[in-house]
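Researcher: Let's do a round of design. I'm pasting the structure tokens now; please hold your answer until I've finished.
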């Protein structure tokens, strides 16, 4: 009896140690849970075999308990394998494809032009350099703590920030400092590059660098033994209190398939207090419930599985996927993941792009043909190839109603030296500047010179002009034909917000791109045009165009105008 009790106690101890280290969720949807069950059965069989002194294969086969145990392990493996198959896209392509339903939206309506202080100028790598530099200046802390590599992107007080906690430099440093906890976190303004080490009145006692029960993963597991947690992120609320944002996985297809996020646990990093929310009730200040990698994977399911699983592998007809990389955009007090959408053919061009909300999973699709991000990065690097700067992954902005890649150009040390703006649809249009303001000014000038948009001289609202064509000239810019038009000053009638900025008889040049207005080739000098346009220098950009040919105008004259008067006779 003592031996049996000892063996049972040993099994329990070994099972607890395995559970304490690996921390599987006690949930049939958790893969680790099935391995845990199989491992427990295997340990029991091993101890039984030692006790019975099983020394040969024959003795093993003749023992019913051992044979039954092996059957249990095989049954666990079969259930796991069948569950994995029935949960896979092979048999559930339609369900996977509908996990997200992107809404088609208008780019210029959704993404307004933002001020310089709201543009995140740094990527995670550059933020890490600033954080390490700030930590190096804190002599009293640098010997005991290091900076975590998390650097979560958040919106804090309406501005884009990255925030990351400190962590213990070693196990010895943890032993000497764990009573007070981690004393600070680093907050980096992504627009101004201002880096602040925020000292806390009460230290962070629950983190990834803690050991034993205060380790954040172990703390969560013992509080929520059945929850399957996805990637944790470190954020601060509106008062600057540090929290761990802990998304809980939800499997929508079979045992292991169709993962989304069903709940969110918020853990106070200082006290360990937790609050459990349904995903739809998640507080507004939380910015990252859905990891960016999960969102891009969900969109890839939507784009690749439109015509079934085997088409996504073999014919790939109509298959779309996200591009290699993503960035973050601050919009509507949330953080949205941005990435391009391209075909699987590898043609280096985008068909559009998506924005995916990290708090709600809302997905918006914007149709916009143009260059892939990597092509735009190469185009920007080509402008400064003599300096050997490298481009960070771009951010998508609205500049003069044009989808524009904005990126930082970094030197070999990773420091930001210049900024670049690249037109999404015409990635040869590249502007470089030492500051964001200079870069935008140069970019708007290029847009105007290439007839893509006005240079910002107008109020942004359209004007209307009617007049007779005085002269038309054709030019080819980057492979696209443009017609440049002037009107007879005496027939030119202008109404609109810029009417007061145009002097009587002033000659304006109007740009009609043949890709936007193919009907322009049907008009000649002497025809009458009515156009909506935005004022620009030196070229005005046409918004809408209507015209009447001269011959039609003569036929439309009234009978009184066509018949000569008695005096004329």
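Researcher: That's everything. Go ahead.
Model: Designed sequence:
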């Amino acid at each position: 009896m003592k031996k049996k009790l000892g063996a049972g106690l040993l099994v329990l101890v070994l099972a607890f140690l395995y559970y304490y280290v690996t921390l599987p969720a006690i949930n049939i949807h958790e893969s680790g849970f099935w391995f845990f069950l199989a491992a427990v059965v295997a340990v029991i069989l091993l101890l039984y075999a030692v006790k019975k002194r099983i020394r040969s294969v024959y003795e093993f086969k003749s023992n019913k308990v051992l044979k039954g145990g092996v059957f249990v392990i095989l049954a666990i493996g079969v259930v796991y394998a069948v569950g994995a198959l029935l949960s896979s896209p092979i048999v559930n392509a339609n369900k996977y494809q509908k996990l997200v339903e992107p809404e088609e939206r208008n780019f210029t309506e959704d993404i307004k032009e933002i001020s310089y202080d709201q543009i995140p100028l740094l990527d995670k790598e550059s933020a890490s350099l600033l954080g390490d530099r700030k930590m190096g200046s804190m002599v009293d802390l640098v010997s005991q703590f290091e900076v975590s590599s998390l650097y979560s992107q958040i919106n804090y007080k309406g501005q884009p920030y990255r925030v990351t906690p400190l962590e213990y430099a070693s196990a010895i440093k943890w032993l000497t400092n764990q009573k007070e906890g981690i004393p600070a976190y680093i907050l980096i303004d992504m627009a101004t590059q201002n880096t602040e080490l925020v000292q806390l009145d009460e230290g962070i006692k629950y983190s990834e660098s803690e050991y034993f029960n205060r380790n954040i993963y172990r703390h969560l597991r013992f509080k929520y033994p059945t929850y399957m947690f996805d990637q944790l992120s470190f954020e601060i609320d509106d008062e600057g209190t540090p929290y761990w944002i802990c998304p809980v996985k939800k499997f929508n297809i079979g045992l292991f398939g169709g993962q989304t996020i069903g709940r969110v646990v918020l853990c106070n990093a200082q006290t360990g207090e937790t609050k459990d929310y349904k995903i739809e009730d998640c507080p507004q200040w939380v910015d990252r419930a859905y990891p960016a990698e999960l969102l891009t994977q969900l969109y890839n399911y939507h784009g690749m599985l439109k015509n079934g699983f085997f088409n996504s592998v073999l014919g790939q007809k109509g298959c779309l996927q996200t591009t290699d990389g993503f960035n973050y955009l601050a919009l509507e007090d949330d953080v949205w993941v941005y990435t391009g959408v391209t075909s699987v053919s590898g043609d280096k061009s985008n068909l559009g792009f998506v924005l995916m909300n990290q708090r709600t999973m809302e997905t918006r699709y914007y149709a916009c043909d143009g260059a892939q991000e990597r092509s735009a990065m190469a185009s920007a690097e080509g402008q400064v190839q003599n300096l050997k700067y490298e481009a960070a992954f771009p951010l998508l902005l609205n500049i003069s109603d044009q989808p524009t890649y904005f990126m930082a150009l970094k030197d070999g040390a990773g420091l930001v030296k210049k900024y670049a703006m690249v037109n999404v649809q015409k990635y040869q249009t590249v502007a470089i500047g030492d500051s964001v303001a200079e870069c935008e000014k140069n970019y708007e000038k290029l847009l105007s010179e290439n007839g893509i948009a006005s240079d910002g001289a107008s109020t942004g609202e359209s004007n209307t002009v009617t007049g007779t064509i005085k002269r038309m000239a054709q030019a080819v810019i980057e492979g696209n034909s443009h017609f440049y038009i002037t009107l007879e000053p005496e027939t030119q009638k202008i109404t609109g917000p810029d009417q007061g900025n145009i002097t009587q008889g002033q000659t304006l040049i109007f740009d009609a791109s043949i890709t936007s207005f193919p009907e322009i080739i049907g008009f000649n000098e002497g025809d009458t045009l009515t156009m909506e346009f935005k004022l620009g220098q030196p070229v005005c950009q046409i918004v809408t165009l209507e015209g009447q040919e001269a011959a039609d105008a003569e036929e439309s004259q009234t009978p009184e105008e066509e018949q000569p008067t008695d005096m004329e006779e």
